[in-house]
Structures are given as structure tokens and as C-alpha cells.
Amino acid sequence: MPPAHESLHVYREIAHNALWKQNPILGQLLGLCPLLAVSSNAVNAISLGLATILVMSLANFAVALLRGFIPHEIRIPIFILIIASLVTVVDLCFNAFLHELYRVLGIFIPLIVTNCIVLARVEAFAAKNATPAAAFDGAMMGVGFVWVIGLLGALRELLGQGTLFSGVEMILPGWQGLQILPEDYPGFLLAILPPGAFFVLGLLIAARNWLDWRANERAKARLLAQRLHSA
Amino acid sequence: MSTTTPKLPTLPEPGPWSISLRTAAILLAFTVTFTALMAGAYRLTQPAIEATLEAAKLRLINEVLPSDRYDNDLLKDAITLPEVPELGISEATSLYRARRRDEPVALVFEAAAPDGYAGEIRLLLAVEADGKLGAVRVIRHKETPGLGDYIDIKKDRRKDRPWIAQFSGKSLVDPPRSQWRVQKDGGVFEARAGATISARAVTHAVARALSWATAHAEALYRWPAGQRFEKE
Q1: Tens digits of residue pLDDT in B86-126
Q2: I want to staple B111 with a disulfide (CB 3.0 to 4.6 A). Which of A145, B102, B209, B226 is the partner?
């Protein structure tokens, strides 16, 4: 058992990795299929994101727990088997308890199976790490996925129809979506159609790269200043 | 887990056969375990799924026919429709009969427009006993978001006067059958700019379904519940 501050450091590293540095969408560009199709509004995007968090934590947890029993040669079929079973369970639960949403998300819940990020984390992390860390990694990668897909959905919805969180009553009965832009906003169709997803995603990735670049430059400048100072 | 993985005797050099068998057994054990997990989840969620489906169906029916209009158990007073070309649906569907004190009130059934801009548009209609349309709702479609999807009341931007509401109260005499077209084709039904095809498809499908239901109304109300309807 590593000392407490060290394991805390490990968890912080996992979180930083998942949320920013190796973010599934912005960093690794994985899971673009649901990203394109479901991010046309914030509620759909966040809901699919939440389902993904659930699947990723469960899958990472299950694989890390069972990793001692999985022969190396057939690990991929077993991973897929585990992921597909968990997705099926989540799919059934959505159908039973969140039916309206289930109808909207439709085929995209089963398609979480094909989201490469799930298999990628299972293979790269859960198969080699202890169970709690693996479950945490799955959950964090899921959060990294949901904040980007949620932001993408919100931006597209705002540009496309001038609203935010429309359809929230499917998850939280009694709640209402927000009308952000004036009622007579004509809508910007491109943002809602699939090409809009590519454009907005491209801008988000560019923004991330720019932020990283700026942070880099500042670090370099600081280093230089330090050297000059000491010289 | 270890109970499900068979323990083979540890040989000095396991041959390819025993390795294969061991691997296969492990894969089998995993398959059985996770299939059991899925089967368990299915059994647990099935009652809830059926209840939700029924509730969703009733909610949908309520949109075309308010529940205070009838007093029978609508979901039980159903007959199975075979493939009816006029309704444009190629599989068997259910038709529900609303009655009040055993007097016919309305028929609720599905119809489809095969010629939407992006494939089939599925409709739910209530046709009242006097031949007027109760209401129409689009229940499934793939029309372009933001352009043709105004036929779906949930996506319609004009909440005060939704497009689909113009069918309510119409019958085959008002307007006459020849006027059951969109205005662009010389009829009375409006279509929104840029997406006439969706509106035209729905209008024609509604007209066809309405004529079919009025022509067979008497037999449809009379048919024994739970039975498959055959044209006489």
C-alpha cells in the first residue's frame, strides 16, 4: 500500500489526465460517432455522457477486478463481452426508468459499446491497475467526455435554436428549458446538422491547443526570467 | 470466480491442446457469467419496461383523444389490423376503440406516410364517430431537424398554432376530398416554407387513413376485441 499522499497524487494525476491532458475527445479524439449524432442539444449530449460515465466506471471496475482471470491472448473478446453486457444492462435500465430519453437517444445507448474510448481505457488502464484506481479512471474519463460533449451540445443548441437545455423535462419532470436568444431567433440550421458538430468541435480543439500553447509560452518566459535573474 | 474456472493439472509443459482448452473454458465461463448478468437485468427491468410502454402508449393516445371523452378500457378494446395498403403500414398494428356508455366515440390507430423527405412518417390519428378527425400526431419521423420537423408538435416552433393542429375537426366533407392537399397543390392545408414535402406527405396520408376509417367504421366498431380484423 503506497503512502496516502502518494496515492492522492496518483488520483490527481488520473483526474488531470482525463479532464484535460488526455481528454477523450479533445486530446485523443475518440468517441466521435456519438459526439456527432447526439450533441445537437445539451440535454441529449449530457444524458449520453452520463450513460457513458456509468458504463466506463463499471467496465473499468469489472475488468480491473477480473484482470487476474483474463488470459492475455483473449483479453479483447472478453473486454468486449464485459462492455457489451454492461451496456445492455444500462440500456435496459434506461428503457425501464427513463423511457422518454431512451426514445430520443435510441440507438446511441447500445452504440456506447463501439465508443473506442471505453475499450481504450479498459485496455490501457484497467487491465494493469488496481480496482479503485481503475474505477476512478473510468469515471474521470467519462467526466472528461461529458464536459466536452455537453459543452458542444450546449453551443450547438444555442447557435442552432437559441435555447439551452430544451427537453430537460424528459429527465427532470417539471423543469423547463431556457430560451436564451429572442423568441423570434430564426435558428442556424448548420449548427444542428452533423457538419455543425465538426465545426464546433474543431473550434473547441483549437481553443484547447491555444490554451496549452499559451501556458507553455508563459512557463518558458518564467524559466527565462529566472535564469536571467540568477545570472 | 475461481469456482467457474476449471482447474487443470499443472503439467511441466502444457501442450497446445491443453492451452486451447483452458482458454476456451475461461472464455466460456466469462460468457456464461455475463449472459447471466444480462438475463437477470432483463428479468428485473421487464415489468417496468412493459408498464412504461403502456403508459407511453396511453399518453400518446391522450394527445389525440382526451381521456374524459370515453369510459371504456381503451387499451383492452383493441383489434389487430392486418397490413392495410390505405394506411401505408406493412406490419400488423393495433386499433383502439373509444366508447362512452357503449356508444362509439372514436377510433385511434396508426397510419404512415411512406413519402416523407427522409423516409417514413408515422402518424397516430383519432377519427371520431361522426367522421371528423379528433387530432393527428406524428409519432416517428426522420425529417430534417429545424426544417421539416415542424410536423412533430414537440419540434414545432409555433406553440400557439402548431402546424399539425390544422387537421383537428376536419372531415372528408369539410374540406371535400379533392381539397385534401397542401395549398401549393391547390388544396386547403398550409405548409411551411422550405419544407413542403413533409407537409404534403402527412396531408395525403391523413386523407387516405381518414377515408379508410370512415368507409369501414361500422365494421371496425363491431369487430370482437382482441381479434384480427378482416375486410368483409
Answers
A1: 899 888 889 999 999 999 999 999 999 999 998 999 999 99
A2: B209
> What secondary structure does DSSP assign to B166-195, as a single string?
GGTT--SBTTBGGG-SBGGGTSSB---TT-
pLDDT digits (tens, 9 = 90+) for B22-65: 999 999 999 999 999 999 999 999 999 888 888 888 888 998 99
Q: Which residues of B touch A93 (CB under 8 A)?
A: 41, 45
B1 touches chain A (CB under 8 A): yes
Q: For residue B122, what are the contacts with CB-CB under 8 A and spacing of at least 6?
A: B89, B110, B111, B112, B138, B139, B140, B141
Domain parsing of chain B, residue ranges: 15-64, 67-222
For chain A, the domain total comes to: 1
Report yes or no: B39 at the A interface, CB cutoff 8 Å. Answer: no
Residues B145, B231: contact at Cβ < 8 Å? no
DSSP string, A122-141: IIIIITTS-HHHHHHHHHHH
**What percent of the residues of chain B are helix, what percent strand, and what percent coil, each to the nearest 5?**
40, 20, 35
Q: Are the Cβ atoms of A69 and B26 closer than 8 angstroms?
A: yes
- What phi and psi, each to the nearest 5 degrees, are found at residue A71? -65, 140
The angle subtended at Cα B142 by Cα A97 and Cα B152, nearest 5°, is 75
Chain A nearest CA to B48, separation (Å): 5
- Contact with chain A for residue B56, Cβ under 8 A: yes
- Prediction pTM value: 0.70
Touching check for B48 and chain A: CB below 8 Å? yes
Q: Write the DSSP assignment of B92-149 as a string of letters.
A: -EEEEEEEETTEEEEEEEEEEEEEETTEEEEEEEEEETTS-EEEEEEEE--PPTTTTG
Q: Considering Cα of A74, then A80, then A83, then A89, what sign does the dihedral take?
A: negative
Q: Are B81 and B109 in contact (CB under 8 A)?
A: yes
User: Which residue blocks in A39-173 are alpha helix, DSSP H?
Assistant: 42-66, 75-97, 99-105, 116-121, 131-161
- Residue range of the domain that includes A87: 4-230
As for the ipTM of the complex, it is 0.77
